[in-house]
Design goal:
The protein has 125 residues and is mainly alpha-helical. Helix 2 packs across helix 3 and helix 2 crosses helix 4. The relative contact order is 0.16.
């Protein structure tokens, strides 16, 4: 999905991918972790369920490179934004649960809030 969104901005996935090397170069652990996690969640959402595939006799198996592959799901820009917003919400919820439980828990809560903020910078609000 490389088409630009209706407002002329680059698609969210592309913005996240572009931000990852920048976060890595600046050694921003929180942004790097959040961006990697969000991109992985998007990739996972595109995966198809292969549970209906049954093993059988080898002579009945498809032959050749890629013959047993299935096309991935096509996610809309709204689907991708919903996934990233869910990632943000998960971090905010976890940060709230960690808050006030001692210094190491408070540090983890701060890291989760920083990860959420790093993702919010790409989706807005």
């Amino acid at each position: 999905m490389s088409a630009e969104s209706s407002n002329g901005a680059a698609p969210l996935r592309d913005r996240l991918r572009a931000a990852l090397p920048t976060a890595m170069k600046s050694r921003d652990k929180n942004a790097t972790a959040a961006l990697r996690s969000a991109l992985a969640a998007i990739d996972n959402a595109e995966a198809v369920d292969g549970s209906d595939m049954k093993a059988g006799a080898i002579e009945a198996s498809p032959v050749g490179l890629g013959t047993a592959e299935r096309p991935r799901r096509d996610l809309t820009e709204a689907d991708i934004e919903a996934i990233v917003r869910a990632e943000i919400a998960e971090r905010r919820t976890a940060a709230a649960e960690y808050a006030g439980r001692g210094s190491s828990a408070d540090d983890r809560a701060a890291a989760l809030r920083a990860e959420a903020a790093a993702l919010e910078a790409h989706v807005g609000g």
